[in-house]
């Protein structure tokens, strides 16, 4: 690595399009791709050395996984590790498209109807999955669990009044409808 390599910058290779190519201060492009005519072995070794000494990402160190949502492109954070629904555990017997019998253990508080599917977070990772209601073996039990939790709008009303210590006619009806509901946290 020469003195002028300090001023080099990453560019896309004009021949092969490799994004790890480097353009030096005076305009020469070097590429780490072995099949490219601008290939430079020293650059490839330099890149490998950087990767070898790259510190472990902070995402793994603090128990969080950072990723980009493929649909929206927004940055997201997910908790890595064990997911345990505790007292809100529900087991769903399901037959997948191959005809294999599966049992999913999830959190009934996260159950949501979405057209012909039910969506919920499942163990062990807490990943949200969608299950076709026609393939669920214990659909009556699962459908009854969906009705035991407040909807998003109802939850907002309950949380609003719980945070302020107030009440309203709607809030009282919701408290009667969902006597087991407690604010999260």
Distance N to C terminus:
54 Å
CATH architecture assignment of the largest domain: Roll
Helix content: 10-25%
In the residues, how many domains can be counted? Answer: 4
Q: How are helices and strands ordered from N to C?
A: EEEHHEEEEEEEHHH
Return Rg in Å.
Answer: 27 Å
The protein's oligomeric status is single chain
> What class do helices, strands and sheet pairing give?
alpha+beta
* Strand elements, count: 10
Summed over residues and divided by their number, the pLDDT gives a mean of 80
Physical arrangement of strands within the biggest beta sheet: 1-2-3
CATH level 1 class label of the largest domain? Mainly Beta
CATH fold-level topology of the largest domain: SH3 type barrels
Q: What global shape is seen?
A: elongated
How is the main sheet built? 3 strands, antiparallel
């Amino acid at each position: 690595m020469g003195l002028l390599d300090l001023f080099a910058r990453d560019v896309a290779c004009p021949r092969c399009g490799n994004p790890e190519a480097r353009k030096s201060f005076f305009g020469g492009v070097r590429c780490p791709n072995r099949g490219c005519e601008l290939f430079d072995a020293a650059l490839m070794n330099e890149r490998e050395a950087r990767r070898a000494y790259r510190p472990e990402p902070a995402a793994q160190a603090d128990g969080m996984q950072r990723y980009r949502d493929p649909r929206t492109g927004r940055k997201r954070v997910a908790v890595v590790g064990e997911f345990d629904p505790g007292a809100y555990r529900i087991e769903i017997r399901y037959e997948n498209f191959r005809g294999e019998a599966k049992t999913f253990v999830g959190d009934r508080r996260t159950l949501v109807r979405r057209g012909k599917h039910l969506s919920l977070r499942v163990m062990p990772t807490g990943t949200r999955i969608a299950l076709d209601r026609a393939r669920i073996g214990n659909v009556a039990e699962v459908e009854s669990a969906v009705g035991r939790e407040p909807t998003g709008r109802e939850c907002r009303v309950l949380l609003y009044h719980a945070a302020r210590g107030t009440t309203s006619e709607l809030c009282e009806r919701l408290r009667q409808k969902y006597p087991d509901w407690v604010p999260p946290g």
